[in-house]
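fwd from M.: "can u put these together and see what the complex looks like"

so here's what she sent:
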Amino acid sequence: MSNKPLLSVQNVGINFGGLKAVSEFNMEIHQGELVGLIGPNGAGKTTSFNLLTGVYTPTFGEIIFNGQKLNKLAPYQVTKRGISRTFQNIRLFNELSVLDNVKVAYHSLAKNSIVSSILRLPSHFAGEKEMEEKSIEFLKIFNLHEDLYSLAKNLPYGKQRRLEIARALAAGPKLLLLDEPAAGMNPQETQELMSLIALIRERFDLTILLIEHDMNLVMGICERIYVLDHGVLIADGTPEEIRSHPKVIEAYLGEEVPAVHA
Amino acid sequence: MKKSKRFWLFILLAVVIYSVVQLLISTGVFGSYYSNTLILMAINIILAVSLHLVIGITGQFSIGHAGFLAVGAYISAIITMRLELPFIVGIVAAGIIATLAGLVVGIPTLRLRGDYLAIATLGFAEIIRIIFLNIDYVGGAAGMQVSHYTTWTYAFVCLVITIIVITNFTNSRHGRACISIRENEVASDAMGINTTFYKVAAFAIGAFFAGVAGALYAHNFYIIQPVNFGFLKSFDILIFVVLGGLGSLSGSVIAAILLTMVSTYLQGFPETRMIIYSLVLILVMLYRPQGLLGTREITDFLKFKKSRKGVAQHVE
C-alpha cells in the first residue's frame, strides 16, 4: 500500500441554508481498500456520497482524488476522473435495454463526433462496434448476458441491483461508491452480492466505499469502517473496534441511562 | 448489415412516395389544393420530428417551437425577398439562424426542469413574435409578402433529410446519451454524460429543422404575419408529438399526417372545426394515453413476432 491515499477528504462540510448536513468530514481511502460508511438514518451518508461525486459542492474543505481536487467539478467530470456510484433507490434507464444501459456508461469509450454519427462515417460504426462488444463481454461477468435486450424496468429486483453495479463499473472507475447495495435483498441475495463485490474487486483492481445498513455485510467484508451520526464523523476503525466503540453504540442504541434508584 | 438494409428500404420508400406524388401533381390529377395540403403535411412532419428530438428523446419539455419556426420563416423571407438570393440559400440560412437562436435560448434555460423549462421556452417564443411584430423592415403586424417558392420537391427532400438526420442521431451513442437524460438525469450525469451539452445539442438540432420548416412555411403562403407564430402554433406542434407517443419518431410522423388531414378536411366546417379537432384529441388521449404508438417505432411492430418467439425460447 502506498502512502498517498487514493481519496483524501479534508474537513469537508456542507450547509443547506442554516442546516449543517455534514461537517468536518475527514476520510482517507487507499488504493485497493474496501471501506464501509455506516450511521443511523439521516446521519448524512448519502449526502457525503453526493459531495464526493459532485452532486453537491462542499461549503468547506477539500476533496482530493488521485492527486486532483474535485470540489467544483460536475458529476460527469468526477466520473471521468474515476469515481462512479450506484444509488440508494435504483436509478436505471428504465426504457433502455440492459445492453444500452451499459453502453451509456461506455459513452466516452468512443470518440466519434455528432456529425460523424449523423453522416454514418466509418468512425461511428467503429465506435459502436467497440462499445457493443465490450458491453456484452462485460455483462457476461455479471451473468446478465441472457437479458441483453430486455428493458431494464422488466428485470427482477436483484438483477436490477446487479445491473446498476455493472453499469457503474462500466464507467471505468478506480473508486466505486455503493449506496446501500443490499437494500431490499433477502439473505441469500445479500450473500451473492457479497461474493460479487469480492469478485469485481479482485478482477478490476478496485477500491470500494459502501454505505450499508446490513451489519452482517458491512462487518463481513469491510476492512475499515467510518461511522457518521448527525453529519459528524464519530468513529473510524476496523470492524472489531467499531463494534465495541462506545459512541457507535450510543448512536445506534441511545445513551446509557444510569439506573435511578427509587 | 441489417440496419443498412433498412436504410435503403427507407430510401426506396421515399423515392416511390416522391415519384408517385410528383407524377400526380405534374399530370394535374392533384390540383393546387392537394399539393398544398401535401406540402403542409411535410412541413408539419418536419416540425413534429424536430420537436420529438427535444421532448420525446431528450425529455426536455419545450413548448416554444413556433419561435424557431418564426425565426426560420422571417430569415428566409428576408433572404429571398429583400436580398433576392436563391431559395435554397434561404432554407439553409433559416436553419442556421434558428440553430443560433436555439443555442441562445437553450444554454440559459435548459438548466431548468419540467414546468419551468416549459414556461421559459413559451416566453421565448412570444419574445420572438413580438420582436418581429415591431420591426418595420419585415412588415410589422401587417406581415411580409413572400413569393411562392416551396414545391413538393423542396418540402419532401427537406423532410427526408430531417428524418435521416434525426434517426441517425438517435441511434448513436449521442442519441443514447439523450435518452439516458430523459430516463434519469441524475444517473446519466453520474455515468459520465455531459448532460448540459447533450440537452443543448438536441435543442439546437431541433431548432435547426424547425427553422428549415419555417423557410418552407413562409414560401408556401404568400404572406407571413407574426400572428401565425403565436403560442397556439407551438401547441399544434406539441400535440403532434404527444399524440404520436412521446419517444416515437414514426408516431409523431403519423400524428402529423393524421392531424393535418383532419384539420384540412375540417376547413369545410369553420364553425365546428375546433370543436371536432379538440374532440379527436380528447378521444385519443382517453383511449390511448400513451399516444398512438407509445414509445415504440413502427419497425418494432414488424419485428414483434420475432421477439415474441425469442421470449418463448427463453421461457423454455
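replying to her w this: Chain A has a mean pLDDT of 90.
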